[in-house]
Each structure stands twice: as C-alpha cells, then as structure tokens.
Amino acid sequence: MTDRPLRGKVIGSSVIASVAARAARETPGILRLGPPLGQLVARVRSAARNTLRRVPDAGYRTSRDGVFAAVSDGRATVDVEVATDARFNALEVAADLQERVRHALRRTGVAVSSVNVTILAIEEPPPPASSGR
Q1: Which alpha helices (H) appear in the chain, and where do they start and end?
Q2: Is residue 114 within 8 Å of residue 75, measured between CB atoms?
Q3: Angle at 121 between CA 77 and CA 26, to 5 degrees
Q4: Which is nearest to 30 in space by CA: 77, 81, 64?
Q5: Residue 14, SS3 per DSSP
Q6: For residue 71, what are the CA distances in angstroms to 15, 23, 87, 96, 124?
Q7: Dist CA 69 CA 55 (whole Å)
Q8: How far apart are CA 64 and CA 18, in angstroms?
Q9: CA-based, 20 to 30 A from 83: which of 34, 46, 125, 126?
Q10: CA-CA distances (angstroms) from residue 111 to 70, 73, 108?
Q11: The whole model's pTM is what?
Q12: 61-113 confidence digits (pLDDT tens)
C-alpha cells in the first residue's frame, strides 16, 4: 500500500446509480423504481430529440430504472424516482430511502452531496400470485 492519494475519477456515476438503485429496491414501501411507461416513452422521445440536436445531458448518467447520478469533484448527487406502496406513509418511505441510499454510498468512499427522492405514484401493491396449478 501507498500513502499517496488516488488521482482521477475512481468511481463513476453509473456505479453510483447502481448502488443507489439497489438500496432503493431494498427499502420497505418501495413498489418500483422509475416512471410509468407513458412517462418513459416521453423521456426516450425527448432524449432522442436532444441527441439529434446535440444537447448535452448535464453530466448525468441514467440507469435503466429511474435513478440518475452524477459525480463531480468527488461528490455524488443522486435523484431517485419511485412509486410507493399505499399501505405505507409516503414521506416516511422517502426519508428512509434517502438515508439508505446515503448509507450505501458512504461505503463506496464517495462523499454524498444530495439524495433527492421524487414520488411519482402512490399505488396499491399487486395482488399476491396464486400458487394454484
């Protein structure tokens, strides 16, 4: 081992987004990550237009499931979009999610600038699958 500090970008935003998504999926009261299908289609259309116009994406990397992450100057900013279970208090779920994401990101060694949670929907959970054959 050396005492010299690491230089350069060590952990990318795609890894940060992946860690945050895993923490979100493990949070009680979260039904799903990301936008409903209609919003997803609109975002893909908008992203395609911006790509054709060569509009920069402000340094954000988007995971495939509603988690956006950026790392700048060794600090991570994360935005998580979720649907919560109607049986839980949505604001308490969001606060728990923020703390779980912060805790998971601390283990990467990256300082956390902010974790923002957007509740896109509050839904009833799907009915349990029947085990009848």
Answers
A1: 13-25, 37-53, 90-106
A2: no
A3: 60
A4: 81
A5: helix
A6: 10, 18, 34, 22, 35
A7: 18
A8: 9
A9: 46
A10: 12, 9, 9
A11: 0.73
A12: 556 588 999 988 889 999 999 999 999 999 999 999 999 999 999 999 899 99
